Amino acid sequence: MHDYQFEDDFDPDGYKNGELDAILNRHYTPPSQPKSTPKFQNVGKPRIDLEEVDQRIHEAYDGRMERTTAYHGRFSPLTCKCKACGEEVYKRRAEGFFRGYWTFCKCSRDST
Length: 112
Description:
Elements: H1 19-27, H2 50-60, E1 65-67, E2 78-82, E3 88-91, H3 95-98
Antiparallel strand pairs: 1-2, 2-3
């Protein structure tokens, strides 16, 4: 019994060498190149400036906290200092300060 699959020029669809490539290339249109944009580009909203960051922290804690480190984004770490007790508070996400999350500084703990 002869096995055609081991012949060099055998194609089970019946095409000769080069015919299949010619057919595919004739109907192939390359996709348009997408615009190159950075992976983490803030498209919808503009970045907030440092004055607005300080204002949000001031409003969330009634003026008790002030920013001590540079602000890079709401998902980056940020350190603030409590004006009442002088303790610095670190949060892994800056948005925690914007929302007024618990700071665990000395003056916010119960003295009982």
